[in-house]
Amino acid sequence: MKRTERISAMEKILDDSNAMLKEVDAALEKYRAMQEKIEELDLYYGSKEWFRDLKADEEGKLPADLKRGVLSEDGIFDMITHNREVLADMLDLAQEFVHNH
Fold first, then answer.
1. Which of 4, 18, 69, 94 is an S-S bond match for 75, by CB 3.0 to 4.6 Å?
2. In the chain, where are the structural domains located?
3. Contact in structure between 62 and 68 (CB atoms under 8 Å)
4. What are the backbone dihedrals phi and psi of residue 65, each rounded to the nearest 5 degrees, phi first?
């Protein structure tokens, strides 16, 4: 590879990396902000309130057009599990980078 080609290739990597890092920073900022809400949902899941809401749904006491995915046993559990997996993946990535660099 010629010097100018190499420099151009490395410049593209630099530009692409900076653009991607801006996207990651923005996504992480949103993700951090969402963690408090996820914790609130985690506390709701399986609580007395959740069971009362589920019972009201089963008894037909909720509006038919009300979105109620939070009352499914799998919906919240799957999201919380996925959230933990994402956190673990980020930790693994950070540890791998620190170990290799």
1. 69
2. 1-34, 45-101
3. yes
4. -90, 5
For residues 83 and 38, the answer to whether their CB atoms sit within 8 Å is: yes
CA distance 38 to 59: 27
Residue 70: closest CA among 59, 54, 58: 54
Walk along the chain (101 residues) and give the pLDDT tens digit of each residue.
899 999 999 999 999 999 999 999 999 999 999 999 999 999 999 999 999 999 999 999 999 999 999 999 899 999 999 999 999 999 999 999 998 98
Output the CA angle 16-19-24, nearest 5 degrees.
120
* CA 32/CA 34 separation, integer angstroms: 5
The model's pTM is 0.78
Q: What's the residue count for the chain?
A: 101
Tell me, what DSSP letter sits at residue 62?
A: S
